[in-house]
Amino acid sequence: MRIMPLSTKIMTAVQNLKFFRRSYESINKELEKPSQDQHYNEDFSYEKQNLKNFLKFQDISFSYNKTDLIKKINIEIKNKSIVGIYGESGSGKSTFLSIIAGLLEPTSGKLYLDDLLLDQSNKYLLKNNTSIISQNSNIINDTIMNNIAFGQPEDDIDKEKVIKISKLLNIYDFINLNEQKYNYVITEMGKNLSGGQRQRIELARALYFDREILILDEATNSLDKESEELIFETISSFKGQKTIIIVSHDIDNLKICDEKYFIKNGQLIKAN
Q: Could you give the number of structural domains in the chain?
């Protein structure tokens, strides 16, 4: 009878292996491909192409399992503008953002960075110049300094730049309240920080690497009204300096936008 619990565990493990086999094979296949995204030099500065005039979607569609998630989207996002996109959950907002960030390849249509047609061979130029700040924390269990200058060797971190950005984003004072200051260790998922502090540190990371396109994907969903207003006040201060795309289910969050679009059933409609 003692064998029964062990045999059940073995059977469960075998079933799990069968279930995840296809996923493993797909991931392994991708890892074996020569990477087209490793366009960076030894000092960790990624190769990117600055946006000069516009990011243009021309008849962009994306389908998954024969279902159209976005359909023939046409939009021209002007350089250094703030564009707002709102719509209900499941309307296609996340798919649209993933294409902008270079995380998904359109099923059809063309995407231009100024006059450059982006494809599999050069989409890293856009990806390396885009930061996404979402409601899901990308904070790691490490020091504040290493969270802001994420991935850089400690000896190469431009500490003066980190401090300058911290002052700009009004997180300098709260950082210096701690004895360890920038060496203060953030716990897993940033649980020892407030929601507003986490979002500002993620925003500081985007500014540290000087990403030109900032995407806020429902970034303030979990924040209280006061913290939310402070975040949007900070974002509006970059008007005319960065290309910013704000995605929200709440149109009130898009007051600072130059243009607003409504997305429904995968179709993008310009709002009045």
A: 2
CA distance 189 to 125: 29
Residue whose C-alpha is closest to residue 86's, from 76, 97, 77, 78: 97
Matching residue, tokens 């995605």: 247
**Tokens representing residue 234 in the block:** 């900070």
- Helices of type H across the chain: 3-32, 93-100, 124-127, 144-148, 159-168, 172-177, 195-208, 225-236
Which residue range is the domain that position 257 belongs to? 80-104+116-270
In a domain, 208, yes or no: yes
Phi, psi for 269 (deg, rounded to 5): -125, 130
Find, among 247, 250, 196, 260, the residue nearest to 218 by Cα: 247
Q: Are residues 236 and 138 in the same domain?
A: yes
15-34 pLDDT tens trace: 555 555 555 555 665 555 54
pLDDT in tens, 155-187: 889 999 999 989 888 889 989 998 899 999 988
DSSP code per residue over 87-129: --TTSSHHHHHHHHTTSS--SEEEEEETTEEE-TTTTHHHHTT
